[in-house]
Structure formats: C-alpha cells, structure tokens
Amino acid sequence: MKRKRASLPSPFSSSTCQQKYDVFLSFRGEDTRNTFMDHLYDALQRTGIITFRDDEGLERGESIASELFKAIEESQFAIIILSKNYVSSKWCLDELAKIIKCRKEMGLTVFPIFYNVDPSDVRKQTGTFEQAFIDHQKCFEDNIKRVETWRATLREVANISGWHLQNR
C-alpha cells in the first residue's frame, strides 16, 4: 500500500531532487530506541510523515553505510537525537557528518534534539562527549583528520537551534 506523503514545506525544488523520505532519524539505539525515539517515530508515522529509521528502512543484503547515506540524501529533514552515548558510536558520527554535508550541499533541514544532555556539553565536547573523543583519538591515531571532522561536525550541530529535553 503506497502511503500519501505528508504536506511539509520543502527546501528542495521538485526538479532537482527526488525525495523518498520526509524525515531521517539519527540516534544512538542503546540510549533512545525503546524510549523517546520510538515515541517520536510512532507520532511521525501516525501523522503520515514518511520517516526513515535504521532498523526498518534498511534493505536486506545491502551495505549499511551506503544505504544510510542514500536515505539521508533522499530525506527532506533530519532529526538528530543527541544522547549521552551518541558520540561513542563511529556510525553515528559518520552519519552526522553526512547529514551536515547534505545540509550544506543540498539544503537538508536539520533539527537537533539534546536528549538528557546539555547542549553546551555537546558544543564544548565535555562530559561523556570528551571521553568518547579521547577514545576515538586512540582508535584513529592514524586518521586524526576523521576525528577532527567529527568534532567540527558536532560543534556545528550544537550551534543549530534545537530542543533540550531532560527526563521526558
């Protein structure tokens, strides 16, 4: 059954880019999958907003990274749920870098949600964010440029107006 797309304002012209999803959700599963993210996903679906989340939108047998990046490119909006363990995942950070690249190059609209984290910890990369980057620097000492890209991307996202949710 083909679902009707929600009527959302689009930053894209119909002639330049074909959008498959209204929203791409970026999140750290262990922090939010069975709590906030599931509620958000269900609410978006109920209102007819076509939403990509990694556990339902990935084609079996396809490369995870390429499928995720393709889904980001085919979305009008990205909602990034920044939680305390978000930056401990290189997958989340690579996804975040792709989202910001699409924001700059394709006009993807980005909405950050600071879920049980202080936006200043994200911006300044303190607290759990600091430790995660210390660990990444050890793991990627031959590719520090990748870690620096992640840091810059995270600072950029933290400077986008979003929502700060504590214990909700």
CATH architecture: 3-Layer(aba) Sandwich
CATH 4th-level superfamily? Toll/interleukin-1 receptor homology (TIR) domain
Radius of gyration: 16 Å
| Helical residue percent band | 40-55%
CATH class: Alpha Beta
Give the number of domains.
Answer: 1
Strand tally is: 5
**Proportion of strand residues:** 15-25%
What structural category characterises the helix and strand content? alpha/beta
Dominant shape: globular
Mean pLDDT: 85
Tally of separate helices: 8
Largest sheet: 5 strands, parallel
Low-pLDDT segments: 1-16
CATH topology: Rossmann fold
String of helices and strands: EHHEHHEHEHHHE
Strand order, sheet with most strands: 2-1-3-4-5
In short:
The protein has 168 residues and is α/β, with parallel strands linked by helices. 47% of the residues lie in helices and 15% in strands. It has a single domain (21-165), classed as Toll/interleukin-1 receptor homology (TIR) domain (Rossmann fold).
